[in-house]
Amino acid sequence: GPGQAEMYAGLQELGVANGEDLKETLTNCTEPLKAIEQFQTENGVLLPSLQYALPFLDLHGTPRLEFHQSVFDELREKLLERVSAIALEGKVEERYKKLEDLLEKSFSLVKMPSIQPVVMCVMKHLPKVPEKKLKLVMADKDLYKACAVEVKRQIWQDNQALFGDEVSPLLKQYILEKENILFSNDISFLQNFFSPSPKTRRQGEVVQKLTQMIGKNVKLYDMVLQFLRTLFLRTRNVHYCTLRAELLMSLHDLEISDICTVDPCHKFTWCLDACIREKFVDNKRARELQGFLDGVKKGQEQVLGDLSMILCDPFAINTLALSTIRHLQDLVGQDTLPRESPDLLLLLRMLSLGQGAWDMIDSQVFKEPKMEAELITRFLPLLMSFVVDDHTFTVDQKLPSEEKGPIPYPSTIPEAFIKFLQENRIACEIGLYYILHITKQRNKNAFLRLLPALVETFSDLAFSDIFLHLLTGNLTLLSDEFALEEFCTSLFDGFFLTACSRKENVHRHVLRLLLHLHHKVAPAKLESLQKALEPTKQSGEAVKELYNQLSEKLELRKPSPAEVTETPSMELPLPTVPTPASR
After folding, report:
1. Cα–Cα separations (whole angstroms), residue 463 to 128, 186, 337, 428, 514
2. Were both Cys, which of 13, 60, 369, 433 would link to 356 (CB 3.0–4.6 Å)?
3. Which residue has the higher pLDDT, 526 or 122?
4. For the purposes of burial, counting CB atoms within 10 Å of the CB of 181, is it exposed (0-12), middle (13-18) or buried (19 or more)?
């Protein structure tokens, strides 16, 4: 076929006879058998000792093809070993000269499946494959596919679009994996989105593949960062910021200094990575991080864009926010004001740099966002007053009650708190983490007091996937409260259901929570929730699927009609099967 002809076309250039030559010889000769014998002699393996061995193999019924094939395979193995050896021996210029000559000779046979591995091996060992050869490889889908990653890197570094096509499906996969974790049906306060350590996360398939594709190539690394920045700008999806940090740290793990030394964020990211591992910023590391931020020189402000993206990684925000809450509790104990704590101020500075990442990269104005004084002088003291309210209430409960009766838990929320959560991004982020904190402490009173403030928050942060993922996990600690009408009304009617119809993701999170806790919810409440959560025509597949799962579970819980009605049935009695304990 035409494929065959193309495959062996290269042989003629090298003066080696091929099938076409044999066809020609046989067409123009008088004695075909003699001609074949002559062709075999001229083009066989030239070893005198074989003259007698081949007829012997013929007697044993071993086809000549099989013999030649095995000799060929053996030679190819030897050649591959030799190429790898040449790539390591002698003076640099000489060894590459040898390989280039070999490539020149063998490249015309690159379409022959038997020879292709050798050609590919030669190219793999050449730090600079000649431009013409790269163009030929690029133009041929099959050759490009068969290329080693070392050769592909050389192609990619001058073809951003082609590299983009290779990277794009990996980035899609990465985002999808993150979303699957956030919406996972396993709800637990022990295992959540932030549980895996940074080292574990960097072993993920996408990070490993990207690391492999980049190798030590700074140009490719820069391209990937450019893709991540562009996608972050286009989508505002913060998982791209996580990938930015993971990729750098993955190259750090492999000690690829060619790249780490030129990324100005390397040391900052390395230090922050250690904090994320501990889920806390200790004093020593805080000093170190502050040193990096203070060290940004005039004329190098652009590095702030990169640092802000590293700080916008949800894993970084999570660490900074948890550390902030811990600091606030300590300050209550020490009777110190937030503005007197340099550690706390640094945490806020990094939080606002991270939260300002999108605006900074979008506007290309590289300066640290101004910290609002009110955040430090009014909002944080407010949070501290909530901590104090809890202490006071707990102490009051323990005191012998006088005639005046028990002191009720404070139920009103200061107007200022609600306003801060609506208007100030950093205040909102810290406020939400405080609410996660009291939920984890099973502090039902504090939770119900502050919950109404979550209905309207800065850019709907209280309805973001990460917050709802963490909240649903922590609510499992309050599972016994779900039997109480008042608790359910506050949580569902007062919070979740206010957003379900306009936000698909909230609908999904409520259904996840109920799938997990339905058996704790009072039956009447469950019934009204089932009605309220019914998917609409606009609902996506995920919502419909979750709703069906929930409905099935609730069906199993209903008492069977036989227990309800006493009318004698005409059908044969079925053996009773115990219902599986539903979760």
Report:
1. 52, 19, 31, 12, 17
2. 369
3. 526
4. middle
Per-residue pLDDT tens for 408-450? 888 899 999 999 999 999 999 999 999 999 999 999 999 999 9
Backbone dihedral region for residue 405 (phi beyond 0: left; psi -120 to 50: alpha; all else: beta): left
Q: How much is the CA Rg of the chain, to the nearest whole Å? A: 35
Q: Within its chain, how far is the Cα of 280 from the centroid? A: 22
Q: What average pLDDT does range 240-269 have in this prediction?
A: 96
Nearest 5°: phi and psi at 217? Answer: -85, 105
Q: How many residues does the chain have?
A: 583
Tokens of 285: 């590391």
DSSP string, 14-26: TT---HHHHHHHH
- What DSSP assignment string belongs to 37-86? HHHHHHHS---TTHHHHHHHHHHTT--HHHHHHHHHHHHHHHHHHHHHHH
What's the rounded Cα separation, in Å, for the pair 560 and 581? 15
Q: How many CB atoms lie within 10 A of CB 8?
A: 18
- Residue 573 Cα to chain centre, angstroms: 55
**Longest pairwise C-alpha distance within the chain:** 129
The Cβ of residue 345 has, within 10 Å, a number of other Cβ atoms equal to 16
What is the DSSP-derived secondary structure letter of residue 479?
Answer: G
Backbone angle region of 490, left / alpha / beta, with phi > 0 → left and psi within -120 to 50 → alpha: alpha
Do 531 and 496 contact (CB within 8 A), yes or no?
A: no
Distances (CA, A) of 237 to 52, 164, 301, 407, 509: 74, 19, 24, 46, 19
What DSSP designation does 147 have?
Answer: S
Query: Beta-carbon neighbour count of residue 17 at 10 Å?
Result: 15
CB neighbourhood size of 306 (10 A): 22
Task: Quote the CA–CA distance of 543 and 527 in Å, as a whole number.
Answer: 18
Phi and psi at residue 267, to the nearest 5° = -70, -35
Min mean pLDDT across 28-32, 420-424, 568-572 is at 568-572
**3-class DSSP state for residue 410?**
coil
Whole-number average pLDDT of the chain: 86
CA nearest neighbour of 425 among 575, 513, 528, 321 = 321
The answer to whether residues 444 and 487 touch, using CB atoms and an 8 Å cutoff, is: yes
- Element at 228 (helix H, strand E): helix 218-235
Which pair of tokens denotes residue 37? 């014998």
CA proximity to 188, closest of 439, 543, 477:
477
| DSSP-derived secondary structure letter, 256 | -
* pLDDT per residue as tens digits for the range 77-130: 776 677 666 666 767 677 767 777 777 777 776 777 777 777 777 778 878 888
- Scanning 217-341, the segments in alpha helix (DSSP H) are 218-235, 239-253, 257-260, 266-278, 283-294, 303-312, 314-334
**Residue partners of 532: CB distance under 8 A and separation at least 6:** 492, 497, 500
Domain ranges of the chain: 44-130, 160-368, 434-550
CA distances from 142 to 111, 136, 374 (A): 9, 11, 63
